[in-house]
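Justification of resources, computational component.

The compute hours requested in this renewal are based largely on the per-chain cost of generating structure records like the one below. Each record pairs the submitted sequence with a full structure-token output. That output is archived, and it is also reused by downstream analysis tasks.
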Amino acid sequence: MYFLKKLKWLMLACILTSMSAQVSAHVLKNTTAQVILRDGQVEVKVLTNAEHLISALQSEQAWLMGDIDKLMPTNLSAEQQEEFAKNALKQKTSLRVNQQVIVFERVTFTTSNNNEAHDLEIVFQAKHTFTTVDELAISFPKSLGAVHASFVKPQYKLQGAGDTAKIKF
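The structure output for this chain reads:
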């Protein structure tokens, strides 16, 4: 009986040890986007994985399913791939402010050489002429996969020296 109790505890310890080896820090692998609304402009910062994006733009299956309009050739240089991706993303990313379509004027890519899941930052910039924005709608291309988006509308206040700023959300 004593031996069985020891064996149970030993087995429990082994199971817990083996399970804890599989636990690791959670890194969000999906694409993330931050949509920032400012006076007269909208900026969309997208963080994604470059290899996944290129693979999606070169996928014949995605092209056949209508997820992408044009297949990216496999023999492009890095600069040509970037230009192709910029055009494809600009064409398929849709932004509406107060139910009016807004065209992105500028798209920039910034890559980082670290081993993180998100090694590509894509920044879309657009201008609008609305004094007040009541509604914003954005859709991302399927080539980015699922996108975790956050929306930011800054509130600007002049705060006097020593004053407390009170902001309602």
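Residues 31-152 form one domain. The helical segments are 2-22, 50-57, 60-64, 78-92.
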